[in-house]
């Protein structure tokens, strides 16, 4: 019999609509103004801070909806933004400088929906508000690090080749190697030129000293800067993802700058701590032959450096760095056999080989783990940017008991929270070069609210115009198309709420408005074909069957070409273009389903298999 669906097809349509509605439902409940309290530099948030927060807010007469402690973070929900802003100042004063209090918007999704993994749409910066940073990479420091590594490599290579040198020195524009005779200088020149093709070598003699001078070629200089920028972008993305910031935008701008947008974060303090931390580890050998008292008085050996441990005690270390944090591929916090916090380190293959070779020849000697951090100082450079201050601290000094490999551990950490914080930063990666924030903007939720309202009005007016037109022009079949249009909207919102990487932006709303018109376009093709068949004298059931069957090819062709365009936009676009492409792709697939399968199910249900002489079309 024509125009009859089997039961499973009806069940499939019902299941798709029901699941989409469930996952779209959290968007109906909105969000609560909230404060998110987290510890700074490893400080833990405990029930004591929860009780102190509740007591302080109660004394001030501020009513809260809830206060929950989860994953070492305190989330306090308020009834309005006025109480949220008042509460922020009170909580910050009550808890002190060891805690960061950030404004946030917490979804008000019921627990039964959260239990099935349903949550509201992730909104972009233009809709939800958040923070925008323009960050600049300190390329001078990046080049300085490459030069330091270059000096160490020169010394190691020349020793292995038994080419004696007087010194390897860093100059402003390159690296100088000094020899005692011209023959050794010439041998070293031939060897180093073959080993380092990215460097340009020249002879530089002075009196009885015979020297080589090495500078980076233009190509090598460009590669170093590009590597520093790309690695910093990757590491910032890793850090943001590790710390759970939803749907960030991290992309380059020009040769030395990075744009970072964090939707939903209204307080820049937490974001700065996430992004600006440049913590890394260095492993160095302790200069056990140096006189610590003399070094503390200012008489430090030429190839050594005086640092201090966490208790302020002086430690003399060799300047040569055995290994840096860039070779760390994994780091995790745990307890040792004496219930003391430690960080377990895993190295990549080159780092493991370097550590194994070094520790094999230095068993019995003390090795220090140095924590290095860069902070922005008050003094400024000539271009107006702030200078970076390098702060170094010896975490622990341990005697090398045996040859180390790719996995080992470091101890001497004060608390488990600090070990977890350090392991997170190391796992996410150490910035190749320090960064500074040259521009910072906080986008309030009021602007996003206005954008949402305007977008919703545009969508509402567009739908209303389409609904009225379809009802007038196609009568009862127009009603079927309108039901499919609503189902199409529910599916788009539901799918975008389910997809982890989907973010709703203002261009995304434009994509939905566009698909509203496209979703009824398929129905127009089908209904016009049914009308044509009826005018040609076909029976009602045969006209319906031919209308859907013959229009399918045209609908598929039109939608597939648009889908290909959306895929290309998603592949090559960034930011707003991606947001538009995502909603367009989901909207096209949803409109094809509702127009071809959904409306056919309704038509078959109400008109299929019946003896009819005319249709309300």
UniProtKB/TrEMBL annotation:
Residues 305-433 form the SecDF P1 head subdomain domain. It comes from the Bacteria. It holds the Pfam family SecDF_P1_head. Residues 2-103 form the SecD export protein N-terminal TM domain. InterPro entries: SecD, SecD-TM, SecD/SecF_arch_bac, SecD/SecF_CS, SecD_1st, SecD_SecF_C, SecD_SecF_C_bact, SecDF_P1_head. Residues 435-597 form the Protein export membrane protein SecD/SecF C-terminal domain. The keyword Glycoprotein does not apply. It is found in: Cell membrane. The chain crosses the membrane at residues 7-25, 455-474, 479-499, 505-530, 551-573, 579-607. It is a multi-pass membrane protein. Keywords: Cell membrane, Membrane, Protein transport, Translocation, Transmembrane, Transmembrane helix, Transport. Residues 229-288 form the Protein translocase subunit SecDF P1 domain. Forms a complex with SecF. Part of the essential Sec protein translocation apparatus which comprises SecA, SecYEG and auxiliary proteins SecDF-YajC and YidC. NCBIfam families: 2A0604s01, secD. Belongs to the SecD/SecF family. SecD subfamily. PANTHER family: PROTEIN TRANSLOCASE SUBUNIT SECD (PTHR30081:SF1), PROTEIN-EXPORT MEMBRANE PROTEIN SEC (PTHR30081). Part of the Sec protein translocase complex. Interacts with the SecYEG preprotein conducting channel. SecDF uses the proton motive force (PMF) to complete protein translocation after the ATP-dependent function of SecA. This is Protein translocase subunit SecD. It comes from Oceanisphaera marina.
């Amino acid at each position: 019999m024509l125009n009859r669906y089997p039961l499973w097809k009806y069940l499939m349509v019902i299941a798709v609509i029901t699941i989409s509605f469930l996952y779209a439902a959290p968007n109906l409940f909105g969000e609560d103004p909230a404060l998110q309290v987290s510890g700074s530099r490893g400080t833990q948030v405990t029930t004591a801070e929860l009780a102190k927060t509740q007591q302080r807010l109660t004394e001030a007469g501020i009513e809260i909806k809830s206060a929950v402690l989860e994953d070492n973070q305190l989330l306090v929900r308020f009834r309005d933004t006025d109480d949220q802003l008042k509460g922020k100042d009170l909580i910050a004063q009550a808890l002190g400088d060891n805690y960061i209090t950030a404004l946030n918007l917490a979804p008000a999704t019921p627990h039964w929906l959260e239990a099935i993994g349903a949550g509201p749409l992730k909104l972009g910066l233009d809709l939800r508000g958040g923070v925008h940073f323009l960050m600049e990479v300190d390329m001078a420091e990046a080049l300085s690090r490459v030069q330091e590594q270059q000096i160490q490599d020169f010394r190691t290579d020349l020793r292995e080749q038994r080419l004696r040198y007087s010194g390897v020195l860093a100059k402003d524009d390159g690296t100088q190697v000094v020899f005692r005779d011209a023959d050794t200088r010439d041998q070293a020149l031939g060897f180093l030129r073959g080993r380092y093709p990215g460097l340009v070598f020249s002879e530089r003699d002075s009196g009885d000293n015979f020297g080589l001078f090495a500078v980076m070629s233009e190509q090598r200089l460009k590669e170093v800067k590009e590597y520093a920028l790309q690695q910093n972008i990757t590491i910032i993305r890793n850090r943001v993802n590790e710390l759970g910031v939803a749907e960030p935008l991290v992309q380059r701008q020009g040769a030395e700058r990075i744009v970072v947008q964090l939707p939903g974060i209204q307080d820049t303090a937490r974001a700065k701590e996430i992004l600006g931390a440049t913590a890394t580890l260095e492993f160095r050998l302790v200069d056990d032959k140096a006189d610590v008292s003399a070094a503390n008085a200012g008489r430090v050996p030429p190839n050594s450096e005086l640092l201090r441990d966490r208790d302020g005690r002086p430690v003399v270390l060799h300047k040569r760095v055995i290994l840096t944090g860039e070779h760390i591929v994994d780091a995790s916090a745990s307890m040792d056999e004496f219930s003391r916090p430690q960080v377990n380190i895993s190295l990549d293959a080159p780092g493991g080989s370097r550590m194994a070779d070094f520790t094999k020849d230095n068993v019995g000697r003390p090795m220090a783990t140095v924590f290095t951090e860069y902070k922005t100082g008050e003094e400024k450079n000539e271009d107006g940017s702030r200078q970076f201050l390098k702060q170094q601290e010896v975490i622990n000094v341990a005697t090398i008991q045996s040859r180390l490999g790719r996995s080992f551990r470091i101890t001497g950490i004060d608390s488990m929270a600090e070990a977890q914080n350090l392991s997170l930063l190391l796992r996410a990666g150490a910035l190749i070069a320090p960064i500074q924030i040259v521009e910072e903007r906080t986008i309030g939720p009021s602007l996003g609210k206005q954008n949402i309202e305007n977008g919703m009005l545009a969508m509402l007016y567009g739908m209303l115009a389409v609904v009225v037109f379809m009802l007038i022009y196609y009568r009862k079949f127009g009603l079927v198309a309108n039901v499919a249009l609503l189902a199409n909207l529910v599916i788009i919102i539901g799918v975008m709420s389910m997809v982890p990487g989907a973010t709703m932006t203002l261009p995304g709303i434009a994509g939905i408005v566009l698909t509203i018109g496209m979703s009824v376009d398929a129905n127009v093709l089908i209904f016009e074909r049914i009308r044509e068949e009826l005018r040609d004298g076909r029976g009602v059931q045969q006209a319906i069957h031919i209308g859907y069957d013959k229009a399918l090819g045209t609908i598929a062709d039109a939608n597939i070409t648009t889908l290909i365009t959306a895929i290309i936009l998603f592949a090559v676009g960034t930011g707003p273009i991606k947001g538009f492409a995502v909603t367009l792709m989901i909207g096209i697939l949803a409109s094809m389903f509702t127009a071809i399968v959904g409306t056919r199910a309704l038509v078959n249900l109400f008109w299929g298999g019946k003896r009819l002489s005319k249709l309300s079309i």
